[in-house]
Design brief:
By secondary structure, the chain is of the alpha/beta class. It is built from 10 helices and 10 strands. The strands form 2 sheets. It has a 7-stranded mixed sheet, with helices on both faces. Strands 6-8-9 form a 3-stranded mixed sheet. β2 and β3 form a beta hairpin. α1 crosses α3 and α9 packs antiparallel against α10. It is globular and about 65 Å long.
Length: about 260
């Protein structure tokens, strides 16, 4: 990766920007990039700091694990310094708890913005919140040692960081239920065969594979990629005929734009 001055570097998150490509790096390998409310706020801030030149965002992590999931300190009576513990949150009112979880989810929602394509580069363990963070991105490139797992159910919880919708969309309801309910590991081979990952490569080739994918995405005109992404994202909610109409409208916009003709 290029050596650039970070636009953000705090709470286990670093953001660097190189013209059209931004890189968000999880930077706490000593704790296997375990996640906390502070890290989630930093991830949300990274999304807000992206300049308009950015077209591709790469999410990566230092160390052998992408993210081991939620830092278990959250479940202790002490919680994190300056943060309410999860035990305290559970004792609060429904509205307060809902608002807090919604705030946490903001770290996971901006990766699919219509004007960006996001790529998660995933190695080693991506468990629970780590799995959901990888699922938050548009595309996933994985190392051959990757192990995805959704462990919330085994802890008596549910996945609540926006991961359920993309997981069902990628692998289908039955497999998503089985993965979540059992908490088992999903390997690199299975993740590619089921559509969970786009490609798997040896761990030492992960950065190069992501760099090549980012370059390929940047080769197409930005507006065409934005329109195509919107078409594909909305396809599941449209009928076949509605999708045909959406295609025609999008193509008309592109043709007028290329011809310099106003709407």
């Amino acid at each position: 990766m290029a050596s650039l001055d970070p636009a953000l570097d705090k709470d286990g998150v670093r953001l660097t920007v190189d013209d059209a490509v931004a890189t968000v790096t999880l930077t706490n390998p000593a704790k296997r990039n375990a996640q906390s409310p502070a890290l989630w706020r930093a991830l949300a801030e990274a999304g807000r700091l992206l300049p308009g030149t950015v077209r591709v965002v790469v999410l990566r992590a230092e160390g052998k694990s992408f993210s081991a999931g939620l830092d278990r300190q959250a479940f202790t009576p002490e919680g994190f310094d300056g943060e309410p513990s999860f035990i305290d949150l559970a004792r609060g009112g429904d509205a307060e708890l809902d608002a807090t979880i919604a705030e946490y989810q903001e770290a996971f929602t901006w990766w699919r913005r219509s004007d960006l394509v996001s790529i998660a580069a995933v190695q080693g363990h991506a468990i629970g919140a780590g799995f959901q963070l990888a699922l938050a991105c548009d595309l996933r490139v994985v190392a051959d040692d990757v192990q995805f797992a959704m462990r919330e159910t085994s802890l008596g919880l549910v996945p609540d960081l926006t991961g359920t919708h993309p997981l069902v969309g990628l692998v289908g309801y039955a497999r998503a239920l089985e993965i979540c309910a059992t908490g088992r590991f999903v390997t690199a081979e299975e993740s590619v065969s089921t559509g969970l990952a786009n490609i798997a490569v040896p761990a030492d080739q992960l950065d190069d594979a992501v760099r090549d994918l980012a370059a390929a995405l940047l080769a197409a005109p930005r507006d065409a990629v934005i329109e195509t992404k919107a078409l594909l994202r909305g396809a599941a909610d449209r009928t076949y005929e509605e999708q045909r109409v959406a295609e025609r409208a999008a193509q008309a916009r592109r043709l007028r734009d290329l011809a310099g003709v106003g709407e």
